[in-house]
């Protein structure tokens, strides 16, 4: 079936969700029947503004094959995310209500419902729309009207499918949920063929539900998210982000030291170009780099916002040594650099070679979740 579609149909379904998330920017997204977490992986990298990604599947072995791929990489610490992100994976049945699934902006059910027995569909519908009651729901399922066009297909598309609905059957089910639980729905899909087959619709039909602003006479009752009581947590990770003030402070200091080191090396090698910032100068065996020069770095400015917050964040920071007047940062010159500088002055030097030192951070320390304090307060935390 895959050669019929480019990109493959499963990728088109995932991209549909990604496009929806990028357009409407939900903060909390739950994927039911997440299997090997492929959709969650895409949303991790392409979900604008998503702060919580949760996957649920009754087959824990499928999730276990991929869950450790969500572990933060070195790059996640070197370049923390701007906003917070946490990912959680649970073993559980979509026909059982669990408080960990409440309070979501978006719930996705991609090729899930057809794996349920028909008698389970009603329980699933009650749990999804009545208990979870998310702001939006995306449900995709095979379109049985399309099946005659699929070469060599006999019966259902997958041996585990319990049923496959026609467009009429799917729409009747969806409209019934809107009536009972206070939603509106739009129908679309992915995997359409050109003429003369447009009358059969999409290969995968999709219903996009949106909760009514003030549902009346519906079975919906808002519930906030709580700890699981039925589901079992398999994996949980919180990514480093600049919303954590400790990480913001460490990131700022790293950027300051890196920028100052580059300016120092440029000045020692005679490549420093005069600009609005004062020229670096020697004091003992160290080079003093103007804070204005460091502040000119776009990355530093983006982390602080204002020059005042920038200077306040550095005062009292143990890794940053400032001059008495707090107008420059003091960067030591190591022995090798001093020798090379002396050789250059004698006319015997060769091209200066240097390697910026890398500061190793202890990222395992407990970090308080105080997102409202400013940079100046964070460095004292």
Automatic annotation (TrEMBL):
<feature type="compositionally biased region" description="Polar residues">
    <location>
        <begin position="349"/>
        <end position="360"/>
    </location>
</feature>
<feature type="region of interest" description="Disordered">
    <location>
        <begin position="334"/>
        <end position="381"/>
    </location>
</feature>
<dbReference type="InterPro" id="IPR029063">
    <property type="entry name" value="SAM-dependent_MTases_sf"/>
</dbReference>
<comment type="similarity">
    <text>Belongs to the methyltransferase superfamily. HEN1 family.</text>
</comment>
<keyword id="KW-0943">RNA-mediated gene silencing</keyword>
<keyword id="KW-0479">Metal-binding</keyword>
<keyword id="KW-0460">Magnesium</keyword>
<protein>
    <recommendedName>
        <fullName>Small RNA 2'-O-methyltransferase</fullName>
        <ecNumber>2.1.1.386</ecNumber>
    </recommendedName>
</protein>
<dbReference type="InterPro" id="IPR026610">
    <property type="entry name" value="Hen1"/>
</dbReference>
<dbReference type="GO" id="GO:0034587">
    <property type="term" value="P:piRNA processing"/>
</dbReference>
<dbReference type="GO" id="GO:0001510">
    <property type="term" value="P:RNA methylation"/>
</dbReference>
<feature type="compositionally biased region" description="Acidic residues">
    <location>
        <begin position="334"/>
        <end position="348"/>
    </location>
</feature>
<keyword id="KW-0489">Methyltransferase</keyword>
<dbReference type="GO" id="GO:0090486">
    <property type="term" value="F:small RNA 2'-O-methyltransferase activity"/>
</dbReference>
<dbReference type="GO" id="GO:0003723">
    <property type="term" value="F:RNA binding"/>
</dbReference>
<dbReference type="GO" id="GO:0005634">
    <property type="term" value="C:nucleus"/>
</dbReference>
<keyword id="KW-0808">Transferase</keyword>
<dbReference type="GO" id="GO:0030422">
    <property type="term" value="P:siRNA processing"/>
</dbReference>
<keyword id="KW-0694">RNA-binding</keyword>
<keyword id="KW-0949">S-adenosyl-L-methionine</keyword>
<dbReference type="GO" id="GO:0046872">
    <property type="term" value="F:metal ion binding"/>
</dbReference>
<dbReference type="GO" id="GO:0005737">
    <property type="term" value="C:cytoplasm"/>
</dbReference>
């Amino acid at each position: 079936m895959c050669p019929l579609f480019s990109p493959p149909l499963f990728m088109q379904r995932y991209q549909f969700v990604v496009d929806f998330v990028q357009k409407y920017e939900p903060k909390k997204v739950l994927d039911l029947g997440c299997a090997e977490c492929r959709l969650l992986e895409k949303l991790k990298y392409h979900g604008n503004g998503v702060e919580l990604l949760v996957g649920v599947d009754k087959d824990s072995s499928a999730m276990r094959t991929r869950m450790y791929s969500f572990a933060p990489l070195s790059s996640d610490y070197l370049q923390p995310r701007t906003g917070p992100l946490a990912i959680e994976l649970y073993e559980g049945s979509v026909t059982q209500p669990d408080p960990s699934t409440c309070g979501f902006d978006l719930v996705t059910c991609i090729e899930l419902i057809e794996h349920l027995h028909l008698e389970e569909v009603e329980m699933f519908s009650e749990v999804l729309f009545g208990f979870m009651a998310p702001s939006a729901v995306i449900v995709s399922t095979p379109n049985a009207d399309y099946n005659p066009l699929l070469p060599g297909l006999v019966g259902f598309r997958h041996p585990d499918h319990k049923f496959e609905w026609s467009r009429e059957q799917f729409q009747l089910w969806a409209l019934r949920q809107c009536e009972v639980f206070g939603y509106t729905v739009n129908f679309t899909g992915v995997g359409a063929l050109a003429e003369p087959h447009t009358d059969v619709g999409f290969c995968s039909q999709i219903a996009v539900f949106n909760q009514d602003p003030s549902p009346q006479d519906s079975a919906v009752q808002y519930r906030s998210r709580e700890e699981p009581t039925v589901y079992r947590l398999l994996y949980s990770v919180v990514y480093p982000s600049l919303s954590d003030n400790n990480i913001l402070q460490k990131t700022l200091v790293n950027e300051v030291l890196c920028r100052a080191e580059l300016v120092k090396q440029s000045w020692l090698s005679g490549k420093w170009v005069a600009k609005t910032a004062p020229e670096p100068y020697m004091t003992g065996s160290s080079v003093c780099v103007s804070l204005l020069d460091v502040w000119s770095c776009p990355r530093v400015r983006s982390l602080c916002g204002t020059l005042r917050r920038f200077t306040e964040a550095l005062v009292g920071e143990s890794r940053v040594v400032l001059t008495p007047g707090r107008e420059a940062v003091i960067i030591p010159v190591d022995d090798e650099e001093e020798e090379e500088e002396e050789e250059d002055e004698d006319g015997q030097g060769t091209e200066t070679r240097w390697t910026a030192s890398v500061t190793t951070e202890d990222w395992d320390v407990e970090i308080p979740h105080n997102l409202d304090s400013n940079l100046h307060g964070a460095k004292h935390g």
